[in-house]
Amino acid sequence: MNEVIFILNYESFKDRLFDTALKTAPYADKIWFRIKSESAAVIFKLAKELRNILPDKYLILSERPEIAHILNYNAVHLNHTCSKLICLKKIFTKLDFGYSAHTIAEIKEKQEFDYFTLSPIFMTDKPYEVKPLGVIDVSSINKKIYALGGINISNVNSLKNKGYSGIAGISLYKYLESIKKLLT
Asked: Which one has a higher pLDDT value, 127 or 29?
């Protein structure tokens, strides 16, 4: 477990989006630009600017494979509302496809995806009830799985040797440099 996906959530970082991206880029292996509720034009404009300021970074875009493809992003992250993945993979052959899972059964059911986030692992602040999964050993699953949800400097070590490819999170930006050192 050594990879870090920083989730650059538009709603959280709207006013300091690009500054946050630049500050976290040296410590995050991948940056997932999570933007959902904006128009395609706004998503395209912001995603293009992000690619321009981070031309060599592994970038992931939420739910918009056509925009990710045009802007040379590396991956697109989908959820249960996505279209048929088999069709998307035939059209967007250079993209990796990720999936937001909330159970191990869901990961096993969606084997065609390239990687998964599994959440929430720990308690996290949400405007709805959260039921953390706790530390689950995923080493028997032959897929890239990133632990997500409530991960911080005090609990990240409990995820080591559990089969995760790495961690993902929005609030990781606060201590990303320290967490990256703990993982390497």
From this structure: 29
- As a whole number of angstroms, the distance between CA 112 and CA 89 comes to 10
32-36, 85-89, 176-180: least confident range: 85-89
160, 139 in Cβ contact below 8 A? no
Helix-strand-coil percent breakdown of the chain, rounded to 5? 35, 20, 45
Its CATH architecture, for the domain 3-183, is Alpha-Beta Barrel (3.20)
* Residue partners of 39: CB distance under 8 A and separation at least 6: none
The one-letter amino acid code at 13 reads F
pLDDT tens for each residue of 118-157: 999 997 776 777 789 999 999 999 999 999 999 999 999 9
Cβ-based neighbour number of residue 82 at 10 Å: 17
pLDDT at 83 over 70: no
Here the tokens at position 100 are 């937001």
The Cβ-side half-sphere exposure at 80, using a 13 Å CA radius, reads 6
Cα separation, 80 vs 161, whole angstroms: 28
Q: Are 74 and 86 contacting, i.e. CB atoms less than 8 angstroms apart?
A: no
SS3 of residue 40 by DSSP:
helix
Q: At what angle do helices 40-53 and 17-24 cross, to 10 degrees?
A: 40
User: Domain coordinates of the chain in residue numbers?
Assistant: 3-183
